[in-house]
Design a protein that fits this description.
The complex is a heterodimer of chains A (about 425) and B (about 475). In chain A, the strands form 2 sheets. Chain A has a 10-stranded mixed sheet, with helices on one face. In chain A, strands 3, 4, 6, 7, 9, 11, 13, 15, 17 and 19 form a 10-stranded mixed sheet that branches. Chain A is of the alpha/beta class and about 425 residues long. Chain A contains 9 helices and 20 strands. In chain A, about 50% of the residues are buried. Chain B has one domain. In chain B, about 25% of the residues lie in helices and about 35% in strands. A 10-stranded mixed sheet of chain B has the order 4-3-7-9-12-14-17-20-22-24, with helices on one face. A 6-stranded parallel beta barrel of chain B has the order 13-15-18-21-19-16. A two-stranded antiparallel sheet of chain B has the order 1-2. In chain B, strand 3 (about 130-135) and strand 4 form a beta hairpin. In chain B, helix 7 (about 155-160) crosses helix 8, helix 10 crosses helix 11 (about 440-460) and helix 11 packs antiparallel against helix 12 (about 465-475). Classes of the chains: A alpha/beta (about 425), B alpha/beta (about 475). At the A-B interface, strand 19 and strand 20 of A face strand 23 and strand 24 of B.
């Protein structure tokens, strides 16, 4: 039985447990129909030209893992951001772990989507925002149909989340193969501010497929700072779709650090609905072995006087492959847009591959849109310079790679997170840098 | 003198019709509409082709039947009805002329209207003109001069008869019959085109050129061009086109194959000014062209194009850099106005070591037009030290047009160095103000700025074309001010 059929029949079982009067019941029915028609994307689709899901769809995944899987704090301690106090929303095999989490309802809501979906108190927010910006692509529709758990973050007008929020999804390996579909909803009200760190972590070598969807709404003058850390086990695949809607003068930043995993696909879509918005999309990708990362970004400018900045750096070793498929879309009325898209890549080995497709679609005439894409190697002269000053080749290479990626790292606004990613990158490159940033 | 306002200008330009729109009534010998194996056989028979060629065409036709019309390009148009086109039309009075005096005066008049005086070109430009009027070569000049050097420059149907070994060896090697829908169609029904062979070590002393015209109502034009530059030779080939005005859409599906053997160089320049449709987007030529060149060791192919005409353009002149140290270049200006749509660009396939390619593409969109750049740079895993530089700039005039960039970059070699840059902008108000201030009116200022914007590409054109191209840019953009 193919995964598609399995999902479709599981849905029938899943539907029985749902309340028919749930506000999102109709959404689910439409979504599963949509998935039934389109199925999983194939390489024939332009957006999936360079990424094949065939391999990750093979294992016989359990769709509804046992709710009793648990883990010890000591076992996963290192995956938390320990140096700084944070709110934590932790899921173990797709199920909320109250023991590992730290949520709040003090001024701001940092809790669970399952409770937001069931409690009448949250109904207005769910009705106003849930599934409002997510596009009905097949994988997102699949997630919508099965959406029951994930993070729910609501920051009201003029409020600020006092601590950064960590959303962590663990896979224990209790199931032979696991498919999870977390669904996050983040609503940031007028003038509000939030910092979020999201990661997916598999704790065993059993295959894991995560089909995650996150919707983020930034109201007027809101500031959203979102970090995605993808440093998963080599048997874990991730399809992450993040949709962001921005209102007037809001600022949204999304940083994606792709350092591990099997196949990782990032769909990151921004829609600017108000004037003077700013969107920032940055990423560092460092891959080895047979890893594959596909960054698919879209920034849709619908209103005048907005800005967007994209900066993705990639270092590819061994037989890894990288894809960057970025698009900037400027509507007719969106004059005075400043959109910039940059993608730099370094190939370390002969069998590594990079496929880039930076696109611009522009319908307004008074705009400044540009993109740059480079593929090259480390500068031989810079390498020679460092070596002539007594730095060993390995360290010299690491320094240069580090410098190459640093641009992106600089704009990380949580110092503890920056240090941590620094260390991870250093470990990945295989040297100790001997200094801290 | 009354003030000539922008409104007056707009009015004048709106009513200004396609300058080259006329129709010459030459009695032609046209096939019934529709396409089937009999028609393909009939075309082949008409051209007095050998058996292998007929078979080659039929094979292409059979494969074409199984193919689907592509729809991935960023263009929207009413699909042509392939059973409603006449696949062959040739001027019926067709004795071969030794001198121009013998040519049908009506035909000469046509060329005069186009501003292509054969006499003048013979004397001044040193250009040998192989005039293709509705698919059949009517006059070939300078043949003798070329023949002395051993250069073969003739129509492709003549080449099939006279030099079958060359045609058989090379036709379909760069653009296979099954390459794409239009290439397959062309392979089945091509009526004529040019053939050029430059022998070893010969540098062609003059620019070779062909003028294409679509004339007969309801006939499609299926040109086939084959240029072979043997070892260490050089040739510069020009292609230029204008088409008469028509209300119904006309289809043009050409195939151009270039083969540059070791150390050879081919420079292929195009100025395309087919009828773009009127200001309401009615009529105009559909231009679906497959152009590709194959570079052997140390050779170079350079494509230069100025695209101002056609209602719909779908064209990607490409280079396969097969040999080590080979070079591919692509310089393009695409101008779209009114309802024109262009989806054009290039493919640079790096297979050999130390191969280099350069892409410079300038897109200018005005009116309600859509202009897309679509390109591929592919570095094969064995193509060590490949180098590519691409630059795509778009200029938007008015807020009803669109500019699109779809570059594909695929690299699987670590020593590759690729740079890609693209920008989109409009003409600066300060630039126009500066010109106005010095007494240059807005229309002229725009022409000046656009010429400056396109200079990098215009510079690559041969002299005769550069002048024509500059004029074309101005004509195409008239009325886009405001």
């Amino acid at each position: 039985m193919s995964l598609k059929d399995k999902l479709l029949s599981s849905y029938l079982a899943f539907e029985d447990h749902l309340e028919a009067d749930s506000p999102i019941h109709d959404l689910r029915t439409d979504a599963i129909k949509q998935f039934q028609e389109t199925g999983f994307p194939t390489k024939k689709e332009e957006a999936w030209k360079y990424t094949s899901l065939a391999k990750v769809l093979k294992p016989d995944y359990s769709i509804f893992p046992s709710p009793d899987n648990s883990i010890d704090f000591q076992q996963v301690k290192d995956y938390f951001l320990n140096d700084v106090d944070t709110y934590k929303i932790v899921f173990v095999d797709g199920v909320y772990s109250a023991f590992l989490s730290e949520t709040t309802h003090d001024m701001v809501d940092v809790c669970l989507l399952s409770s937001a979906l069931s409690k009448p108190k949250y109904k207005p927010v769910i009705e106003a925002y849930f599934n409002k910006v997510a596009k009905q692509e097949s994988l997102t529709a699949l997630n919508t149909a099965f959406a029951k758990e994930g993070a729910y973050i609501y920051i009201p007008k003029h409020k600020e989340a006092k601590k950064p929020i960590e959303i962590i999804n663990f896979a224990t390996g209790s199931e032979a193969a696991l498919m999870v579909q977390p669904r996050n909803l983040v609503v940031v009200g007028e003038n509000a501010h939030v910092q979020i760190i999201e990661r997916h972590q598999s704790l065993s070598s059993n295959p894991v497929l995560t089909n995650s969807v996150t919707e983020i709404f930034a109201e007027k003058r809101a500031i959203v700072d979102y970090y995605k850390i993808q440093n998963d086990a080599p048997t874990a695949s991730l399809i992450d779709s993040t949709y962001i809607a921005q209102e007037t003068q809001s600022h949204c930043k999304v940083h994606t650090f792709s350092l591990g995993g099997d196949i990782t696909r990032n769909n990151l879509q921004f829609i600017q609905k108000g004037e003077r918005c700013e969107s920032t999309l940055k990423g560092i990708t460092i891959l080895e072995n047979k890893q594959h990362v596909d960054h698919n970004t879209l920034v849709h400018h619908t209103q005048p006087n907005c800005e967007s900045h994209q900066d993705y750096k990639g270092i590819y070793a061994d037989t890894s492959t990288g894809v960057f498929n970025g698009k900037v879309y400027v509507d007719k009325i969106a004059q005075k847009i400043d959109a910039f898209q940059q993608n730099n890549n370094i190939l370390m080995h002969d069998k590594a591959t990079i496929n880039a497709k930076p696109q611009l679609e522009i319908f307004a005439d008074d705009v400044k849109c540009s993109h740059g894409c480079t593929i090259g190697q480390l500068d031989k002269e810079a390498l020679f310079y460092l070596r002539s000053r007594g730095i060993a080749e390995k360290e010299a290479r690491a320094l240069l790679m580090y410098a190459f990626a640093n641009n992106v790292l600089e704009s990380v606004s949580i110092p503890e997170l920056k240090t941590r990613i620094n260390k991870q990158i250093a470990a990945k490159i295989g040297v100790s840098l001997g200094f801290q940033i | 003198m009354g003030k000539f306002t922008e409104d007056d200008l707009k009015k004048e330009l709106e009513t200004k019709e396609y300058e080259y729109g006329f129709y010459t009534d030459i009695e032609s010998d046209t096939f019934p509409v529709g396409l089937n194996e009999d028609i393909v056989r009939a075309i082949s028979k008409k051209k007095e082709e050998p058996e292998w060629m007929t078979e080659w065409r039929l094979e292409a036709f059979r494969q074409w039947q199984d193919m689907e019309e592509p729809d991935w390009a960023n263009v929207h148009y009413e699909k042509p009805d392939f059973q409603n086109i006449s696949y062959y039309s040739a001027p019926s009075k067709k004795p071969k002329y030794e001198s121009l005096d013998e040519v049908d005066p009506e035909l000469l008049e046509t060329f005069n209207k186009l501003g292509i005086s054969i006499d003048e070109q013979k004397k001044l430009a040193g250009v040998a003109v192989d005039i293709v009027m509705d698919s059949v070569s009517v006059a070939t000049t300078f043949k003798k001069t070329l023949a002395e050097k051993g250069i073969i420059f003739c129509s492709i149907s003549e080449a099939i008869k006279e030099h079958p070994e060359l045609v058989k060896k090379y036709i379909g090697t760069v653009v296979p019959r099954t390459d794409n829908f239009y290439a397959a169609l062309n392979s089945a029904v091509f009526s004529d085109g040019s053939f050029c062979y430059i022998p070893k070590g010969v540098k062609c002393p003059m620019e070779l050129s062909t003028y294409f015209r679509i004339n007969q109502a309801g006939t499609g034009q299926f040109e086939r061009t084959l240029v072979i530059a043997d070892e260490s030779s050089y040739v510069s080939y020009l292609e230029g086109c204008t088409a008469p005005m028509r209300d119904e859409n006309q289809l043009h599906a050409a195939v151009v194959e270039l083969i540059a053997l070791d150390d050879a160089e081919i420079k292929y320049s195009t100025v395309q000014n087919w009828f773009p449709g009127n200001k309401d987007g009615k009529g105009g030529v559909y231009n679906f062209v497959t152009k590709r060149g194959l570079c052997e060791t140390n050779s170079k192919i350079s494509w230069t194009q100025v695209e101002t005409g056609s209602a719909v353009t779908w064209k990607y002149p490409s280079c396969i850099l097969k040999g080590d140290h080979s070079i591919g270049e692509f310089y393009s200006i695409a101008v779209t106005n009114n309802y024109q749509q262009a989806d054009t660009g290039t493919k640079m396939i790096h297979l050999g070591k130390n191969t280099r390619s350069t892409i410079i593409s300038k897109g200018i969109s005005a009116g309600k037009s859509q202009n897309s750049y679509r390109g591929l740079v592919k570095i094969n895993s064995r193509a060590d030290n490949a180098r590519n530089f691409s630059q795509c700039d778009s200029l938007l005039m008015g807020n009803e047009c669109g500019a699109h960039t779809f570059p594909y970059i695929e690299t699987s070699n670590k020593s590759a160095q690729i740079e890609h840059e693209a920008t989109t902008s409009k003409i600066g108000e300060d630039q126009i103000f500066y010109c106005n201030q010095r007494g240059i009116d807005t229309e002229k200022a725009i022409a000046l700025i656009v010429n400056g914007f396109s200079k990098e590409v215009l510079n690559k054109l041969p002299m005769e074309f550069a002048v024509e191209a500059q004029k074309l840019l101005e004509i195409s953009l008239e009325g886009s001010v405001g």
